[in-house]
Design goal:
Blueprint (H helix, E strand, L loop, with lengths): L6 H21 L12 H22 L10 H11 L1 H4 L8 H4 L8 H4 L5 H10 L15 H13 L5 H9 L13 H12 L19 H12 L6 H8 L3 H13 L17 H11 L11 H4 L15 H12 L13 H8 L2 H12 L2
Helix pairs in contact: 2-7, 3-8, 3-9, 3-12, 7-8, 11-12, 11-13, 14-18, 16-17, 16-18
Length: about 350
Amino acid sequence: MMIKVTWTRAFLAVALLATLGLTVAWLGIINIGASTGHWVITDKFLHWSMRNAVRTQSALTVSAPATDPTGLTSAAGHYASNCSFCHGAPGERPSPVMQAATPPPPDLSVTAEEWSDRQLFWIVKHGVKFTPMPAWPAQSRSDEVRRMTAFVRALPRMSPAQYRSLAYGPGGRVVGGKAVKLQDALPDCARCHGDDGRGRGQSDIPILAGQHATYLLGALESFASYRRASGVMQAAAARVSRETMRALAEYYAALPGLSTSRPPMLLSGGTAEDQLVAQVVTQGLPEANLPACSRCHAPGKRPEYPVLAGQRREYMATRLRLWRGEETVVDARKSNESMAMIARRIPEHLIEPLADFYARQ
C-alpha cells in the first residue's frame, strides 16, 4: 500500500522529529561528558567539516603574506604562556588535563605541516568552534597573528634549546600563574623586553627602559582591561596584579634608555625633507591640521604620553602605519582617539623620516 506524501504529512513528520529531539535533549539522556569521547563517525565528520571550512574561509579571506618571521620572540613568549599548556612545545609535553579534552588539542610540532600558511593564519586568528581553540584576543592585530603563524610554522624544525631561548629568554626562566611580586613578574617581561628593558632585537618590541612610569602603567592597565588591542600584551598584563603593574612601570622607568630630559636635537640646514621633519616635530603642518609632535611628546611635558626619543625606528613606523589604518586601527575600540586621527594626517612619505629622527635622538 502506497502512502501518499502531502505537504501536511511532511510538516507533521518534521514537527514530530523536532519534538522528539527536544524531548531527548530535555531528558538529558545523551551523555555529553568529554570522558566518553566522540563516536568515530562523529569525530571524522567534525574534522572533515572543520578542514573544509578552514580551506574555504582561508582562501576567501586571508591575503598574502600570511606569516611574518621577523617577530618570533614575542610570538614564542605568548605561546609559552598561553598555548604550550594545550599543544606542548619542543622538549615539553602538553598538559594531560587538556589532552583529556574532546577533541584533544593537536601536537603542533607534527600537525603544523598539514596546513598552508593561509590556513594556519585563519585558525590562529579565528579559532575553532566546539574545540578548546579560542580566537585571537585582539582581532584587529593581524600583524600579531602573522608572527604567531610564522612561529607555529617553525615549530616542527625547532630544537628544545632554540624554543627555550626564544620563549623564555637568556637563562630559560619562566613563571606561571598571576604574578603578585615584582621579582615574579620580571622574568615574564624579560622574555620579550630583556633584562635591560631594551628589547631583544625584535622590531615589534618597544624599548621600555627610561619610558614614563605613568605611561607604562596606563598601557598595562589598558591591555589588562582589553581597551588596548594586542593578543600578546593582553594575555601578559592579565597575569599581573595592579600593585605589580605599578612596580613594573617604576622599575622600567628607572632603567637607562630613552631620552626623557633633553629636547630633540634638530639638524640645522639639511635637505628639504629634514626641514619638513623639523617643522612637523616643532610646529606641525597647519595646512593638514597636523599638530606638532612636541605638543604631547616633548621630554618632561606629558607623562601620560610615551617618550619617543631613542625608541626603535621600526616599531614607531609600524605603530604609526597601524594607527593610520593600513589594515585597521591598532586600538579598535578607540578608533576615534586623537592619535589615530593625527597619524592619518602625517604624509606617508614622512613616516620613515619621522621615526628615524626620533630613533637617532
